[in-house]
TrEMBL record:
GO cellular component: chromosome, telomeric region; PML body; Smc5-Smc6 complex
Name by which UniProt lists this protein: E3 SUMO-protein ligase NSE2
Listed SUPFAM superfamilies: RING/U-box
Similarity remark: Belongs to the NSE2 family.
Superkingdom assignment: Eukaryota
Species this protein is from: Camelus dromedarius (Dromedary)
Lineage of the species this protein comes from: Eukaryota, Metazoa, Chordata, Craniata, Vertebrata
Pfam family, one: zf-Nse
Pathway membership, UniProt: Protein modification; protein sumoylation
SP-RING-type domain ranges (all copies): 30-116
PROSITE patterns with a match to the protein in the record: ZF_SP_RING
Amino acid sequence: MEVKADSKLKILIVLYGLPTDREADGTEGVDEDMIVTQSQTNFICPITQLEMKKPVKNKVCGHTYEEEAIVRMIESKHKRRKKACCPKIGCSHTDVRMSDLIQDEALRRAIESHNKKKHRQSD
Ligand SMILES: [Zn+2]
């Protein structure tokens, strides 16, 4: 499926939590389902395969993980005197450190607002 430039912009807004004034007039004609599907993939932790609740970003390679899962992974590797590889498929970063992880507030907010929306719709 081709993503239009306008949809890409909307995805960025969803991801980074910028204020969206487009919903107010509601006449954009953007395929919302597609956006939800696309953005959801970024909400999934590569370790747990579940939607992240407290995403942290690796500032070295730029990947995000569930905080609890990546911390647990690093700890267990370090206990065995091994380096923790980035669990994201295709990533070549082989030494993930606790100090490289930063809270991804924007993503956390995006997930939260996405879930709120989901809840509203099923109500
Ligand atoms: Zn990575």
